[in-house]
Amino acid sequence: MGVHLFAGKFQKCVYDNGTIISVDIIKNKTQCNLYNYTWKNERINFDHILSAYLALFHVATFKGWIQIMRNAVDSTTIDQQPYRDASTHNYAYFIIFIIFGSFFTLNLFIGVIIDNFNMQKKKVGETVDLLMTEKQKRLYLAMKKYQTKQPRSAIEPPKNAILKFCFNVVTSQKFDIFIMIIILLNMISMSLEHYNQSKYFTQVLSITNQVNI
């Protein structure tokens, strides 16, 4: 989504010392090149999927995220000089991402703790196994296996032949794999979109998305 919103919009016209030129003086890339100024792109941007991941990683870890958000809020359109608070609605994108990104980072941290806890628990379990007889081990393993099993409600297939065929198709493992492949292909096609792509490439992506839908 960040690529769709901000690709090519973090570029600006600057003086030789790197200071941004006012929009009252330079309005776009053409004027910038005409007056021999420098049309510069931000080091962290959303021009393609990889740079967008890097930008969002900075935002999620709160490292330099203020400047990234500032660039997004000041951005206008492609090849146009940015100016202060040109697109204040872009604040919403970063606020929403920070809320969910923080939860993701927290869950990742908790996941590492739980994983380490399970490893230690497994080591303790191995120590307990050494103190058990063979019969006790079999009983212990059977009880553990029983605890991991979850009851599943059986769904009766329809009696109509056509409906029964459709039911068998959608409940089969092959259908699940097929759906997962379609979702994966759709995700790949969406991630390939980037700034300054050719019309042919855009058309191919559009057709691919329509087929996936």
Provide a descriptive summary of the structure in words.
There is one protein chain. By secondary structure, this protein is mainly alpha-helical. The chain has 2 domains: 2-98, no CATH class; 155-213. It has helices at residues 2-6, 29-34, 49-60, 65-74, 91-130, 134-148, 161-170, 173-191, 199-212; strands spanning 11-14, 38-41. The protein has a two-stranded antiparallel sheet with strand order 1-2. The radius of gyration is 27 Å and the shape is elongated. The two termini are 18 Å apart. The model has no long low-confidence stretch (mean pLDDT 83).
Offer a few descriptive terms:
62% helix, two-stranded antiparallel sheet, single chain, 4% strand, mainly alpha
Task: Please give a quick description of this structure.
With 213 residues, the protein is mainly α.
Please give the structural blueprint.
Blueprint: H1 2-6, E1 11-14, H2 29-34, E2 38-41, H3 49-60, H4 65-74, H5 91-130, H6 134-148, H7 161-170, H8 173-191, H9 199-212
Antiparallel strand pairs: 1-2
Domain Ion transport: 1-123
Membrane topology: Multi-pass membrane protein
Pfam families: Ion_trans
